[in-house]
Amino acid sequence: MATGCSTYAGAAFEGRTDSAAHARHLVSEFIARIRASAAFTVPAEALGAALLVVTELVTNVVKHAAGPCVLELELTGDALDISVWDTEPALPVMAAPDALRPSRHGLEIVHALCRDLTLEQRAGGKRIIASVPLS
Question: Which positions fall inside the Histidine kinase/HSP90-like ATPase domain (predicted)?
């Protein structure tokens, strides 16, 4: 477990087209703080996975939910929990694998990169928690 740095970060976004870029920046800064603590090593592959997961989740908010979203990052043991809350109450459904399908692969990608994926309806919307292994 990292010491000497915060193991939590969060931000709210308005669901604009630049929200995914801001979310990636938050993840990059968070991982940089963890690495700087010298108590926890995060491989480049794990950072890449976390950046791809947050991009997919926040992009889905921009495409499918009206209004803002909240992004929370938390270091839990050897994983980064990425939590995204938005105002769309319907839970996403993972489409059956189809290499010829031109889109709707985001949730498949997230599922493949995560140790655990939780989808839950919440008051005023839903929350998705993706646990990305960092080791």
Answer: 27-130
Sheet of 8-13: strand order equals 8-13, 69-76, 79-86, 125-133, 116-122
Set out the domains of the chain in order of their start, with CATH numbers.
8-133 (3.30.565.10)
Which helix (H) or strand (E) is 57 found in, with range?
A: helix 44-64
Whole-structure pTM over 0.85, yes or no?
Answer: yes
Residue 80: both structure tokens together? 């980064």
Query: Is residue 96 within 8 Å of 64, Cβ to Cβ?
Result: no
Instruction: Classify 21 as helix, strand or coil.
Output: helix
Q: What is the mean pLDDT of residues 29-53?
A: 91
Residue with token string 């890449």:
48
